[in-house]
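Please fill in the sequence for the structure shown.

STRUCTURE ENCODING:
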């Protein structure tokens, strides 16, 4: 029997949540969250996480998986997603993947991670190289394990160089060898038809929704949420601490001369607009054949 995987994405504030709920209710679907921040427990307001009421309307999967101080990755996410999809299908329901995290979304459409596992000893070894030699030391070590030359990459980005060095040392292979093996990996979900819908809105409408979203977050208790999450260790987990809404609030709380909440709202809205610009560019480049839908004008029948 033909199986279909439905993927609903779009930029922040486009209105994915409500349309996803309506579609799932009408067509017997269950939501597979594809948001890299919804995996963290306690990040409710700043992520606009589906509420308890939302989750009572439609079953949701892959939300609240780990505490906020525990790093999470797409490598951990994808096997969990496959199990969730298979479970939904086995019960005769339709899997609806919903979210705007591009790298996580791409994992349903193409290979995005390999099988290289980096252990703690290797990470410590790389950190020692960086402590003793800085960014230049990392690049020098990476060149030594890639005698045939390095592929195009940002050598001025220490985090990227460090990750590349970790993978080379952990696998015993050069970056060229790792890339060749990666290209041979099979496409994910080969047994599914994949239908992708990208939601968008007019620039004016999206601007208005971004402003409303930022204000609602702050007025709903974002500052108090971030204070609590800081006590729970969010700053020990950089990806979570850098999420929009959280990084601005953390910076605002660290300001000894706190400005008005209006300054915080403005900062969140400004950074959300920058994110939306990047998301639109990603969707155009990586999902050229996806169905494009104006979320403000179309109903659920138009999504797929």
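FILLED IN BY: designer on duty
SEQUENCE:
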């Amino acid at each position: 029997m033909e199986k279909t995987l439905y993927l609903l994405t779009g930029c922040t504030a486009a209105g994915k949540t409500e349309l996803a709920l309506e579609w799932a209710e009408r067509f017997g679907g269950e939501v597979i969250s594809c948001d890299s921040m919804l995996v963290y427990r306690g990040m409710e307001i700043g992520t606009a996480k589906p509420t308890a009421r939302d989750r009572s309307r439609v079953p949701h999967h892959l939300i609240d998986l780990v505490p906020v101080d525990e790093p999470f990755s797409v490598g951990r996410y994808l096997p969990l997603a496959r199990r969730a999809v298979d479970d939904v299908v086995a019960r005769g329901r339709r899997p609806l993947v919903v979210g705007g995290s591009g790298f996580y979304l791409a994992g349903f459409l193409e290979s995005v991670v390999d099988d290289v596992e980096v252990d703690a000893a290797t990470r410590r070894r790389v950190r020692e190289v960086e402590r003793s030699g800085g960014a230049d030391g990392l690049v020098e070590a990476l060149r030594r394990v890639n005698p045939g030359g390095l592929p195009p990459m940002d050598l001025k980005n220490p985090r990227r160089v460090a990750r590349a060095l970790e993978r080379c040392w952990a696998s015993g292979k050069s970056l060229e060898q790792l890339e060749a093996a990666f290209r041979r990996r099979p496409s994910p979900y080969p047994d599914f038809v994949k239908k992708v819908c990208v939601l968008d809105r007019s620039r004016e409408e999206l601007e208005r929704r971004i402003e409303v979203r930022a204000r609602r977050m702050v007025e709903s208790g974002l500052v108090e949420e971030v204070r609590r999450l800081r006590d729970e260790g969010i700053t020990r987990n950089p990806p979570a601490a850098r999420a929009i809404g959280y990084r601005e609030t953390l910076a605002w709380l660290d300001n000894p001369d706190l400005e008005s909440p209006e300054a915080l709202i403005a900062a969140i809205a400004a950074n959300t607009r920058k994110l939306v610009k990047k998301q639109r560019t990603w969707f155009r480049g990586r999902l050229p054949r996806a169905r494009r839908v104006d979320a403000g004008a179309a109903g659920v029948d138009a999504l797929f």
